[in-house]
Write a structure and sequence with these properties.
Number of strands: 8
CATH topology: Rossmann fold
Shape: globular
Strand order of the largest sheet: 3-2-1-4-5-8-7-6
CATH superfamily: Vaccinia Virus protein VP39
Oligomer: single chain
Strand content: 25-35%
Distance between the termini: 38 Å
């Protein structure tokens, strides 16, 4: 895996062996960012199930100012810290070493971009989005990007956020939510 574009483009990312994380492959990551950007002028990103940290690092590489990464797995945390170190801009990243729901409860930031790729996708994504909205953690023009297996069908609307794009890439499905136009 590598960073696709931006300031860190071409740099290699470490990944965790085994089945505790499922890193988003280069092609899917490139497609995601084509759907939502591909570049940004500042803002904050939340990667709630960070795994290797690749999505948040890619977002910062493409212009997001700051990233909060949440990961409870100790081995994945070490990989994330190595990947952050590779950027030589560690001050742009915060790693929260805890469960996603506990992390959300501790936050007061408002995010422009949120990545959700939990291990148990459908139930967790709906709960996560509902919690993020109820805690008022989204900026006005926020986008939530969900990555799931293609067999998962997420609702077209969750907590006043609507699906604006959905596309399959091999075994992965990317679903993008944003606030409805009347919000």
């Amino acid at each position: 895996m590598r960073v696709i574009a931006g300031d860190f483009g071409g740099r290699n990312l470490k990944t965790l062996g085994g089945k505790t994380t499922r890193p988003t492959g280069d092609k899917v990551r490139a497609a995601m960012f084509s759907m939502i950007g591909p570049f940004f002028d500042g803002g904050q990103v939340l990667d709630l199930y960070a795994g290797s940290g690749g999505l948040a690092i890619e977002a910062v590489s493409r212009g997001i100012s700051n990233a909060i990464l949440v990961e409870r797995d100790y081995q994945a945390q070490a990989v994330i810290l190595d990947n952050i170190k590779m950027t030589k801009e560690a001050n742009k990243f915060t790693l929260l070493k805890m469960d996603a729901h506990r992390a959300l409860q501790s936050m007061s930031e408002r995010f422009d971009l949120v990545f959700l790729d939990p291990p148990y996708a459908q139930a967790s994504i709906v709960e996560d989005i509902e919690q993020i909205v109820s805690l008022n953690l989204l900026a006005d023009q926020a986008i939530i990007v969900c990555e799931t297996d293609t067999s998962i069908d997420l609702p077209s609307e969750i907590a006043n956020l609507k699906v604006i794009k959905e596309k399959n890439y091999g075994i992965s499905k990317v679903t993008i939510y944003e606030r409805g136009s009347n919000e």
